[in-house]
């Protein structure tokens, strides 16, 4: 899982409020060879969206904004293959370890990262990246935490994401700048397709 996401380098963060858009979403992800999607628990449609996107087996679908054990269990029951949390949530981490499921706990400080590593976790979410120092902070944190990889989200954009990816401590970047529902509502999703195509091209050319 970690190797695959490091190859793709992009983790789209998606909040579903319209399930009719998911077929087009899956099609565009596959077309652009970005087979990862993080469906957030920021809407009541998170579980059915995870289930629908997982059905074909073409995508690696994860659940994001997972703050409770109940949400983690619902996500897994509906096909989630990884879990992303906004913070270090012990009961979620312990459940994922029991299920042998990759989990990316949200961290922002040395204390957060240390707590995550005590569970044997070697890849952490860094959130919100822009508020907590961005790339400069990650460079500083990767000194003492030389064996930890980071997945920054929050404040990442098309203008700065390649700067992050040039750092060896960063496995990938995540965010809604990659894909969002609004991009699918116009012109049969063509803006979403074009945006993702441009991001993939930037990675190849950086």
From TrEMBL:
<comment type="subunit">
    <text>Homotrimer.</text>
</comment>
<keyword id="KW-0456">Lyase</keyword>
<dbReference type="InterPro" id="IPR031338">
    <property type="entry name" value="KDPG/KHG_AS_2"/>
</dbReference>
<dbReference type="InterPro" id="IPR000887">
    <property type="entry name" value="Aldlse_KDPG_KHG"/>
</dbReference>
<protein>
    <submittedName>
        <fullName>2-dehydro-3-deoxy-phosphogluconate aldolase</fullName>
    </submittedName>
</protein>
<comment type="similarity">
    <text>Belongs to the KHG/KDPG aldolase family.</text>
</comment>
<keyword id="KW-0119">Carbohydrate metabolism</keyword>
<comment type="pathway">
    <text>Carbohydrate acid metabolism.</text>
</comment>
<dbReference type="Pfam" id="PF01081">
    <property type="entry name" value="Aldolase"/>
</dbReference>
<dbReference type="GO" id="GO:0016829">
    <property type="term" value="F:lyase activity"/>
</dbReference>
<dbReference type="InterPro" id="IPR013785">
    <property type="entry name" value="Aldolase_TIM"/>
</dbReference>
